[in-house]
Amino acid sequence: MQPSPAASAAPHRFCVAPMMDLTDRHARYFLRLLSRHARLYTEMVTTGALLHGDRERFLRFDPAEHPVAIQLGGSDPAALARCAAFAEAEGYDEVNLNVGCPSDRVQSGRFGACLMAEPDLVAEGVAAMIDAVRIPVTVKTRIGIDRDDSTERLYRLVDAVAAAGCRTLIVHARNAWLDGLSPKDNREIPPLRYAVVGQLKRDRPGLSIVINGGLQTIADCRSAIDGLALDGVMLGRAAYYSPWLLSEVDRALFGDARPGPDRSEVVEAMIRYACARMAEGTPLASITRHMLALYQAVPGARAWRRVLSERAPRAGTAQAQAIEIVHAALACVEPDRAAA
């Protein structure tokens, strides 16, 4: 599969955000079926997990997922460098450093959004990773922390990592409030300030700036890219819970006019993928849970979700049963295709 010129020139034009418990390898394979060019990100993986845990499991991905980036959580430069090298050896296209997650667990580990207060340490980590790998090293951050609406902290961080060699920053256009909000509330309550990200691009035109936060539709993506003169957008839960949106991305944002698959073709491809993974011991429900929203707003969508939600967990790793279950779900939304 050859990328379009637009995809090569703007690799971050459309990205699917790293989301804990959501963007695992099975979700990424599914999303790749919908868009050739969207850049996919792993769940955040801590340096401790890679250095002391089941490294092979954390790094595993399917070649079909390219372009795919790994997001690391950590603050020790030596550990980050080692983990970036592991990721490059595994074949990832990019290493992204998390400087935006606001959860208590992340703060206690001295990484995530709290690192906005330590720009020099972040820059040391970025420099160590850049020295260790040849693939791009990027940073994902917020525009600030707590209720300080100044942009001084953001610019200090951006300038520090840029001096260390980082050329691409993904900026969630909200502050991270570290004093009591849950991660969910931190995605919704701190106000969105897109103008801050647009001004950052104008002030630092040599950097690639990608905006994240609150974007829901292709129209939102176009407005952010064109209206703010940004290099790309990153969608999180809007992409996961409305995945058919990705079927518009290649044409609308990358200028790739080649037709994509229809929904039933995606389902059949996922059946083949599921059978291969089940042969390795993966339960069917671990895969089909990511497919529940594929038919959102289509007649029969509720029945599609019900069949998969109720029956897939009982299938375990039985391939014949898995095929029957997914086809039964497909019959709820596309009876003619399921019968064929």
Describe this structure in words.
By secondary structure, this protein is of the alpha/beta class. The protein has two domains: 5-254, Alpha-Beta Barrel (TIM Barrel), CATH 3.20.20; 263-339, Four Helix Bundle (Hemerythrin (Met), subunit A) (Up-down Bundle). Helix content is 48%, strand content 15%. It has 18 helices and eight strands. The chain has an eight-stranded parallel beta barrel, surrounded by six helices. Helix 5 packs parallel to helix 7, helix 7 (119-132) packs parallel to helix 8 (152-164) and helix 16 (301-315) runs antiparallel to helix 17. It is globular.
Mean pLDDT: 93
Beta content: 5-15%
Q: What is the CA-based Rg, rounded?
A: 20 Å
The structural domain count equals 2
Corresponding CATH architecture of the largest domain = Alpha-Beta Barrel
Sheet having the most strands:
8 strands, parallel, barrel
Element layout with pairings:
Blueprint: H1 5-9, E1 14-16, H2 25-34, E2 39-46, H3 47-52, H4 55-59, E3 68-73, H5 77-90, E4 94-99, H6 104-108, H7 119-132, E5 137-145, H8 152-164, E6 168-176, H9 183-186, H10 194-203, E7 208-212, H11 218-227, E8 232-235, H12 237-241, H13 249-254, H14 263-278, H15 284-288, H16 301-315, H17 319-333, H18 335-339
Parallel strand pairs: 1-2, 1-8, 2-3, 3-4, 4-5, 5-6, 6-7, 7-8
In brief:
With 340 residues, the chain is α/β, with parallel strands linked by helices. Helix content is 48%, strand content 15%. Strand 1, helix 2 and strand 2 form a beta-alpha-beta unit.
Features of the shown structure:
single chain, 340 residues, alpha/beta, TIM Barrel, Four Helix Bundle (Hemerythrin (Met), subunit A), globular
